[in-house]
Amino acid sequence: MSRRILIIIGHPDPEPKRLCRVLAASYADGARSAGHEVRLIDIATLDFPLLRTMEEFEKRPLPLTLEDTVHAIREAEHIVFIFPLWLLGTMPALLKAYLEQVMRPGVAFAYSEVAKGGFAGALLKGRSARVVVTMGMPAFFYRLWYLGHGIAGMRRNILNFVGISPVRETLFGMVEGASDATRQKWLAKMRALGVRAV
Question: Which pTM was predicted?
Answer without folding.
Answer: 0.94
